[in-house]
């Protein structure tokens, strides 16, 4: 029984140990400084373990994944980051989302070169995030 | 034999209930059902235009459908006998309660048999579910009106 417990639970604890943050910002963003600043803003949010920012013109989609044991804070983290980015860049249409769909789709958009297609996709995702039914 | 003697005898003969074993079985099977549900949810999110918010309803419907089919085939009964609460507590248990009651009443005709019996077990879930949802919504409405919380 003891061996059984060790066999099943040690990997979980080991996986839990890796607390490295992965933050990526889309390559398409022309302004390097802006990219870095957005990346730092996401990095400063300690609750986030994966963050992806897609910048397409004046549209910004930030997909974050909050640590599972901090799931109850998810909405608060979203709002806080949204406010921070909005304050820094009032001209950008920002959406910060902790939705898995946004995370999944933004990973695919990271290497998208066509800026028009990128903008359309970001707009589509933002509409999807508003969907309630 | 007086009632006390009978009770003693009964307690001697009855095999002890394996609580730990039952709890473990329920935990594992219930967890397995929930893992399948989570996998279906991810399928909807990844391959279709569903978000975390909207995928829940579709996942529940799929799980209910799968459990209904399994009940019809008689597989869910075996699972229920093995796992107990592990198979009854998730939403699949609700589906099982509806479908098995409908199958049971089939011989009495469509209206009085199936129609009359289909919610025999699940009816209380619907009644108290709707009732408690109404009261929770009412409390929230009062709190929002009073300005304590936001929607």
TrEMBL record, chain B:
UniProt entry tagged with the keyword Kinase: no
Keyword Transmembrane: yes
Source organism, top-level taxon: Bacteria
Classification via InterPro entries: Spore_V_AC, SpoVA
Pfam families: SpoVAC_SpoVAEB
Regions that span the bilayer: 26-48, 55-76, 82-103, 124-149
Alphabetic keyword roster: Membrane, Transmembrane, Transmembrane helix
PANTHER family, alphabetized: STAGE V SPORULATION PROTEIN AC (PTHR38450:SF1), STAGE V SPORULATION PROTEIN AC-RELATED (PTHR38450)
Name of the protein: Stage V sporulation protein AC
Gene name of the record: spoVAC
């Amino acid at each position: 029984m003891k061996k059984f417990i060790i066999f099943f639970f040690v990997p979980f604890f080991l996986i839990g140990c890796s607390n490295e943050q992965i933050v990526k910002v889309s390559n398409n963003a022309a302004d390097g400084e802006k990219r870095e600043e957005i990346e730092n803003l996401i990095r400063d949010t300690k609750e986030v373990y994966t963050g992806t920012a897609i910048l397409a013109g004046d549209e910004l989609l930030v997909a974050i994944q909050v640590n599972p044991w901090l799931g109850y804070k998810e909405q608060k983290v979203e709002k806080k980051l949204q406010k921070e980015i909005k304050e820094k860049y009032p001209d950008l249409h920002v959406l910060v989302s902790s939705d898995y769909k946004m995370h999944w789709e933004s990973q695919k958009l990271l290497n998208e070169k066509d800026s028009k297609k990128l903008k359309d996709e970001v707009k589509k995702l933002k509409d999807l995030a508003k969907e309630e039914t | 034999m007086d009632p006390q003697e009978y009770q003693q005898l009964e307690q001697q003969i009855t095999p002890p209930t394996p609580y730990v074993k039952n709890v473990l079985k329920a935990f594992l099977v219930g967890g397995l059902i929930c893992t399948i549900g989570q996998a279906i949810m991810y399928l909807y999110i990844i391959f279709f235009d569903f978000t975390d918010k909207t995928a829940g309803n579709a996942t529940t419907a799929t799980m209910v459908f799968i459990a209904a089919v399994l009940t019809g085939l008689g597989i869910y009964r075996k699972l229920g006998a093995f796992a107990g609460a592990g198979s009854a507590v998730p939403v699949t248990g609700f589906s099982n309660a509806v479908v098995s009651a409908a199958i049971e009443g089939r011989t009495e005709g469509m209206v009085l048999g199936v129609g009359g019996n289909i919610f025999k077990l699940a009816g209380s879930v619907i009644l108290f579910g709707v009732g408690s949802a109404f009261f929770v919504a009412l409390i929230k409405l009062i709190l929002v009106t009073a300005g304590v919380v936001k929607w």
